Amino acid sequence: MSQSRIRLERVTKRWDATTAVDGISFDVTPGQFVILLGPSGCGKSTTLRMIAGLEEASDGQIHIGERDVTRLPPGDRGLSMVFQSYALFPHLSVADNIVFGLRSRKVPKDEQRQRLAKVAGLVDLTDYLHRKPAQLSGGQRQRVALARSIISEHPICLMDEPLSNLDARLRSDMRREIKALQSRLNMTVIYVTHDQVEAMSMGDRVILMQHGKIVQDGTPDELYNRPASAFAASFIGSPAMNLLPLEAGKEGAVIVGEPHTPVAPLEAVGGQLGIRPEDIALSTTSTTGVPAMVVSDEYLGADTIAHVTVGNHNVRVRMSGKHALAGQPCRLYWARENAHLFAADGLRRDDLTPTPLPRSPHSIPRPPVVGSFQH
Amino acid sequence: MITRLPERWQYRLLLWPLPVLLLLCYVVPFAGIVTWSVTLPELGVDNYARLANDPSIHAVLWRTLYLCTIVGVCALLLAFLMAYCWLYSSSRWQRWVELCIFLPFFISVLVRTFGWLVALRNNGLVNSWLQELGLIDSPLALTRNTLGVIIAMVHFMVPFAFFPLLSSMRQIDDRVLLAARGLGASRLRVFISIFLPQTLPGLLGAFIMVFVFCLGFFIIPAILGGGSTLMAAEYVFLQMFQTYNWGIGAALCVLMLVLVSGLVWLLMRFSRVERLVG
Ligand SMILES: Nc1ncnc2c1ncn2[C@@H]1O[C@H](COP(=O)(O)OP(=O)(O)OP(=O)(O)O)[C@@H](O)[C@H]1O
Ligand SMILES: [Mg+2]
């Protein structure tokens, strides 16, 4: 099984002036489902293409299994790839598209036919084998691209945003299908996406990239609960984590524009305080917590996103159910373990702990009017 | 404004010149030709009967088709290579290829034909260079025969094949080629089974365009062939202006037109014209 291990060592890709990938290293163990996540242009596709051999690394080494494949042509690397935008062959039928790789490797005709039948059944394309790609829907094309790569039965599959052109519904179906396929065939998968939902729901491990470098490499849980930087914090989670700049107050660091509530030790000044919208409790009745004003609310069905101002800043708060709070003053509360501190350079600070907020939601015996703590 | 036509009519007014022009320049003369072919020298289909039976006319027709096919194939090959080079070279090289294509465009056919005559004749440039290099002893016969005609015609036709080919090559998605590489195909295989099939409409279109153009060639075969390579257009000219056989010339014209129409129909049918020029 160890031939499906993938190891990158300080791999770099430069084009004249631009450095698309800047010395990244990681080690994928067999059977892992690894997500390469990051904003557009951060070098995800380039990384994947270097692993596939479609782009030559300017520097560093790529190992697959025991072999150094850095300079090997794509056909000799023992992996298959699904492309961003599918890249199906427009002049070939679905069947010919799927077996193209087998033909290139001169697999006997009989075996081609058997494997085609099996794979077509697997991705539910049996009735479409004679069509041309132009006559298929987006989801069907996507499945052809998938079939074309898994028919090779390589233990490694690289996927470059395979679901980016699909609608939301189909996407979630395909996510489950790909995941199921991966565990059934016990493939090692590196999966590129810029969609954090895909990353969180599919990955055993997420590698977050920015400007060609790895920002964080960990389980989805770690990325969500212990973001390594302000960028990682804002990239994962929807709506994004609130990041509030801190300044010096009387009893510690305070949110800029809100001098009365210390939220962190003085050493945190200059950095940022991060709290996820879903970790904030909003109350219109409480007298403790950070004072705020609700500006507007967005009702999303299962929950409501309230936009409130704290000091000079906009803060998003997620509450379950429907609430109409616009224009009301309120108080915000969050548990200390849900607050994250980031230094001025954006990196996570684990040497400091945020100051706990006083919590006494029932200090005033007043009946709740509209909202109450949602947690 | 003198009169205020409804806007709809203003547009229609602008559409008029084209049909009128077509009518005057094509339909009317063509009707005249058809009339000649069945009335000169007397009413009847004698001219067409001669087309069907006269071996000398058959020889001219076969020679025309044969030459057009050869020129078509050669021009296509050259244009394919040039378009391929253009596609995969730096922008500086692209400018050079374009220059090579465009420069001859601005020079009249007549001048180019005489240019080829100067270059190819027995004591011309090509022969004297080859002799100086010691590659040949006596001059090669490059003019007054079919070879010279083919060389000059291919030279003339390459740009006409280049643009449709380039256009169909540019429509090929690079990512598809990469995908084929990624699936383990060698470069040669990618070219043969992915690249080439996708240029087929362009190849077919370019071939038919070149072929149709060649059918009407007159100056090049007349000058470089020196009478030895009589093609259909020159034959029509001879019939009409030298021997005053207006009827048979007209009948041959009608036949050629039918042939060309058939080819153009093929072109429309099998490769989308708008994609060749787009
Ligand atoms: N052939 C190339 N020549 C020069 N620069 C390139 C080339 N290919 C990619 N780049 C640059 O490298 C950087 C990374 O590109 P890459 O395609 O890896 O991004 P990505 O993370 O996949 O983005 P997306 O999510 O939009 O697909 C980009 O800034 C891009 O402009
Ligand atoms: Mg990409």
Automatic annotation (TrEMBL), chain A:
Biased composition of type Pro residues is found at: 355-368
Q: Does the keyword Ribosomal protein apply?
A: no
Q: Where is this region: Disordered?
A: 349-375
Keywords noted in UniProt: ATP-binding, Cell membrane, Membrane, Nucleotide-binding, Translocase, Transport
Q: Looking at the keywords, is Translocase present? A: yes
Location of the ABC transporter domain: 6-236
Under the heading Gene3D superfamilies, the entry gives:
2.40.50.100, Nucleic acid-binding proteins (2.40.50.140), P-loop containing nucleotide triphosphate hydrolases (3.40.50.300)
Any single GO molecular-function term of the entry would be: ATP binding
For this protein, the record's PANTHER family field holds:
MALTODEXTRIN IMPORT ATP-BINDING PROTEIN MSMX (PTHR43875), TREHALOSE IMPORT ATP-BINDING PROTEIN SUGC (PTHR43875:SF15)
Protein name, as recorded = ABC transporter ATP-binding protein
What is the native source organism of this protein? Vreelandella boliviensis LC1
